[in-house]
Request: fold
Amino acid sequence: MYDASSEGRKISLWDDVFRSQYGRLLSSLMTHANDIQLAEDALQEAFIQAMETWSDKNQPDNKRAWLLTVARRRLIDRFRRDSFLHDKLHNNEATIQAITDCLHQDADVDVESDHPIPDERLKLIFTCCHPALSQEARIALTLKTLCGLSAKEIARAFLVSETTMNQRLTRAKRKIKQAGIAYTIPGKAALPERLPSVLSVIYLIYNESYSAFEGQTLTRNDLAREAIRLAYILRHLLPRPDVSGLLALLLFHDSRREARSSHRQPFIPLQEQDRSCWDQELIVKARKILVAALAQGEPDTYQIQAAISALHSEAPCWEETDWQQIELLYGVLYQIEPSPVVLLNKSVAVAHSGRTQEAFTTIASLQEQLQEYQPYYVARAHVATQLGDNDLAIQDYEKAIGLSKNLIERDYLTSQREQLLKQPTEK
Reply:
């Protein structure tokens, strides 16, 4: 007979304990296992045992310590089981002894004092975000190992099958092992080269929250929270201006979460949002972090983007946005990162500043470079509408609809196209 209460307890256990502590526990196990798959297997077995033995009235006082102790024992069992030759066993003796020594500690000791887990977690972040891995693999592996998300959940967010995602994760773990990618924080000399990969992965995870399908297990809010949590961890461990800039940027974006949708309107673009719904406390926090980062005199792409987002947050309404200042900031950003996407965003600011034809000319010149970039067609459709070219705007909305992964966003773009279809065409 199906036991709904038991199933509910398992889900609650997963959400309240396992997922929230997954990254910390896995990082601690990696200290001894030095193999992501081995550490994950041991942790999974510990969680299964917890579901089988814990009850609502009988749970350990320190759940993390309990899970870590059981996982370490499973890790020892695995090492012994895999040691089918005497010389192999000899090679594993030091590892087995190290894990066994840890088991002699008080089981109720807090996990944070058991190992320098924040540092271990940072090692795991840098391992998952190694430049040798593809960008897709970095994002997926980070969500899996640091956030405790399942392959099925990640697959839904990235619109691939669970099988495909499992294969992607397996290949990434295999490459880490075969390439001998060290489970370590890069030295001072290598840090500037490696850190951008970590920051970009966290930013991409947040951006992916905008394109995850609504109504699925992994909602866009889940992804956003995970990205912000990782940014907080990284800033705590590496209080650098670029890390702070990224965190400030994510907080500015997230302050508008509640205004992005309503019961009547599932998707509300920035210009139509009710600014009274913006989280002012989060905006103040983001601004404080940004100001402190800028004061260090090392501006980078994340700090500049955060400054742009700050200008949007400070404007009392869309019409009073300081578009000239935003245009200038995009100009500085383009000097640092001369990409067509940055130039597109700058051109949008130019259009809102009143120089519509100038903006359209620049946007039109970017078509070949951004032909598969959905926001390009949305931006050109908007500017074309301002110029009265509804035919082009309709074509661009149709292209944007075809490139959109988000059903709610697709519905919004469809409504914009339909409004233009009802209007007379002018050129």
Remarks:
- Residues 117-180+192-238 form one domain.
